[in-house]
Amino acid sequence: MALVNKRIVITGGTGVLGQGVARVAKQQGAEVVLLDVAGPQAGAVGEFVAVDLTDTNSLMACFDQIGDFDVLANIAGGFAMGPSVYETEDELWDAMFTINVTTLRRVLNVAVPRLLARGRGSVINVGALGALKGGPNMGAYLASKSVVMRLTESLSEEVKHAGVNVNAVLPTVIDTPRNRADMPAVDPALWVNPEDLGSVICFLGSDAAQAVHGALVPVNGLS
Prior knowledge:
The protein has 223 residues and is an alpha/beta fold. The chain contains six helices and seven strands.
């Protein structure tokens, strides 16, 4: 089991993707800790810790409670279509950057020093394959995810010689109930299954990926 004796912390852990990662990690032998603002539904996998990912004091208390960990999977994030770039208001722009960038930065501020102090660990972020280039009516979202990708590469260069691996996955559309409701005409078999994406994330958190640094790994299913 690739994650046996490892402890994985998953932000956004009670969501669909977070639980996909949690199930795979548990199957691979990991101890799973879920960070989220909303409590888990019945049957959720992992130990839940409530935290506001935008609040540094809340995060400090949270990670003090968690103690040592080996893998950080930054799953928390969100998507919203928008108008054209020139019509995008501050509200949408700020919302996309808060949920996709600010949450990530705050978690990294608190979590990475703990991994550096141990001299080992893995961080996996979630970018977006679509953010490799621009697209219509998604300017704010794609801009925020492109920032996630550049932060991943930059952080990797800063900590790879200290025993910490930092990488990101770049999914296309993930098969979630919301996406099925929003896009009923599209065959969800073409999308990325949360557990399939979870398997890639767990690989990047395993010792088998110790030579992988700063990678942006496409996970595009059949799309």
